[in-house]
Structure formats: C-alpha cells, structure tokens
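User: Quick sanity check before I run a bigger batch. Here is a single chain. Can you write out its predicted 3D structure?
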Amino acid sequence: MKNFEILQPTTRIARGFSKIRTPFEEFIHDEASSGLLLMACAILAMVFANSGLSSLYDTVLHTKVTLQFGTFGLSYSIHHWINDGLMALFFFVVGLEIKREILVGELADLRQAVLPIVAAIGGMVVPALFFLLLNIGGEGQAGWAIPMATDIAFAIGVMVLLGDRVPKVLIGFLLALAIVDDLGAIIIIALFYTSAIAWWALGWAAVFLFLLICCNRAGIRRPLPYFLLGGGLWLMMLQSGIHATLAGVLTALTVPANSKCLPDMFTAQMERLTEKFKKAEHSGKTIMENSEQQAILQNFETTVHAMETPLQQLEHQLHLWVSFLVVPIFALANAGVRIELATLAESLMHPVTLGIVVGLVGGKFLGVFGFSWLVIRLGVARLPQGMSLSQIGGVGLLAGIGFTMAIFIGELAFVEQPELLTNAKMGIIAASLLAGSGGYFWLSKVGGGERK
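Assistant: Done. Predicted structure follows.
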C-alpha cells in the first residue's frame, strides 16, 4: 500500500511534466476557458434581471459599501466598486499584455505587426462610423465608441472550439489585433469619456506615476511597491475625473520586463543545483526529511525568479484571477438587461441598438477585412505563411464580439441615461451572438492553412 501511495502521485506528476505548455498556449487555454465562464455569468445575469430575483439583483448592486480611513472615506455602490475598482485589476493585466506584445510578441517586429495593427484600426474606425451614421445628432451619439471594442476571451474561445480547422498563426493574428483594439479603447476612454478634471488630484497622480517610473529605473523587482504606488495612482485618478481603471494600465507599463541573469548563467546554475540535488538524495528519505534537498529546492526557486521577469510573473499569477473571477463578476453585474416583451421590437429598432449591431457585425468585418486587403494589395504588409485572406474575413466577424469592453464603454457613455444603456447592452449581446456564430461557421467552412 505504501509503495502504491508513493507511485501514484509520482506517475501523475511525471505526466504533468510531459505536458509543458508555452506561455502563448497557456494564455489561449485560459482565455478559451474563461470565455465559457463569462458566457455562463452573462446568461445568469439575464436570468436574475428577468425573474422574481430582479429586485434582489438590483438591491445588491446598489448597496453602498464604505471604506473609511480616519476622516477620509470612499462610499460607492457595489456596482461602482466593480466597474471602477475591480476592473482596475483587469486593466492592469491588459496593460501587462500590451507591454509584452510590444516587447516580444506579435507587435514586436514592425513588419510583422503592420497587418494586425492596420486591421485593428479598420476594425475601430468603420464600426464607429456606422454607429454615427445612425445616431449622429441624436440622443445616443455619445455611444459611438461602443462598437469599436473586441472581447479577447470570447473571440479566442470561439476560435479554440474550431480546433485544427484553423492554424495557430490565425489565433496569433486575432490576439495581436485584440491587443491593439484594447489599447485603442483605453486611449478613447482617457480622451473622450472623462468628466471635469480636478487638477490637484491629477497632479498627485503624476507624482505617483513618477515614483512608479523611479522604481522601474532603480531596478526594484518586488511587486509590493508597484501595487502600493499603483493603489495611490488609482485613488488620485478616481478623484481626478479621469477614469480610475486607467491607473491599472499606467502601473502595468512601469513593471520591469528584464531578467536578473542571462540564459547561459541560468542554465549553468540549474545544472549545478540539479547535480547537488542528486548527490543529496538519501534512500528511503522523503523531501520533507531531507533538509539539504529542501535548501537546494529553495535555490531552484530563487534562480527561476531571477530568470523570470516581474512582468511575466505578475501576468502569470494574475491572469487566472482576472479571467476566472474579475471579468465574470463584471459580467454578472453588468449583463443583466431587463427585457420587456411589449417594447422589445421598439428597443431592437432603436438607433443605439441598431448602430451597435451594425457596427460590431458589419463594421468590424468590413474594417478588419477591408483594411487588411488594402495594405496587402498595396504591398505595405504581407499575409503570414499558412494564413489566407478568407480566414481574415472570419477573424473580422469574431472581432465583432464586443461584450466586456463594449459594455464597459457603454456604462461610461450612458451613465445618466439608463434607457439608452439598456438598448446598448441589448445591441452588444445580440451583436456578439451574431458575430460569434457567424465567425465560427465562416472559419469552419474556410478551414485550410498550415496547422503548426
């Protein structure tokens, strides 16, 4: 029995070691899984809003929560804490992803990055124009940026469902496009969805940002100083009138992205430690009984942390929390749209609803595909090996899944207009369903490409 107990976990661990995933594969796997959870939370929110639980749902979201620090206090509803507080962590991870992609990802090589960057720009400009065509001069004009957004988790989730029918290079293209799309959304939020600015708070925000940059330049690698100063930056941004979640992005951009040792030094140290670990082994002793091996394991951990950059560590540690907790909670708090059957047809035909559906489904497709075709035709960019223009059409449809970022922008655009916000959410949900199913069937028919 004793041998069996020892053998079983060892065998499972060995199988686990053989399944080493690259950071890219791990990211795709997590995004696909979180997309399914996100969908479940959105459906649950709809059920809450359209059942006997609707009053409880509204009461919980509007319950005030106060944080008091001496004479200073923050008092907001749970809904506000989720959208302005919890989502700051989402934007922090988005900022880490943007920095990684620019440094070493699909956007690192300008020649390689031209195609997804231009496709993303097309996928932002055309949907906004489509929305304005239906809403310019009207009460819903402020929502022009809503159909510009792409939800990475949902879009990647749909593509992963296709399995080997799409090449990996196409997933990389979609990821790069969505990252540029997120960056564009962040800039738009900062420029166009900002209330009256409190300059004193903005001045203090600049001080905190300067201190974060100083931490980076001083080579500080521990996360605590960045979180403490980032918290101060968030608090000042909250008071300034500029949306507080942008503090998450700014903090992320100051996180160091360099290793403390070179790859050859790391390899040599790991080989030395491995040899010492083997020599310290004593027959019949477990790792708990062998203090020498325990010390060597600590050295292993220290060496790995020295090699891994703080940016990688934080992205790896926080990505799961954001994907499986923060974003689902956001969906649960914001996707609850009350549907009145008597006025459903009128709501669906409202310019805001139509503008978002047309923008996300038609505008994203024409923008992504059309701008990609143009730069390839002009010779400014070229198609990656194993990818076709017809597949870019499928990506253009999947990019129309707006959801998380689209709802977030909708909350900012129509903060004092609940009826328009309801129409916007209906448009986002309808468009995301159409774009997701359309992109899935498009790519399942097109297929092709090198499956590497």
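The mean pLDDT is 84.

User: Great, the batch can go ahead then.
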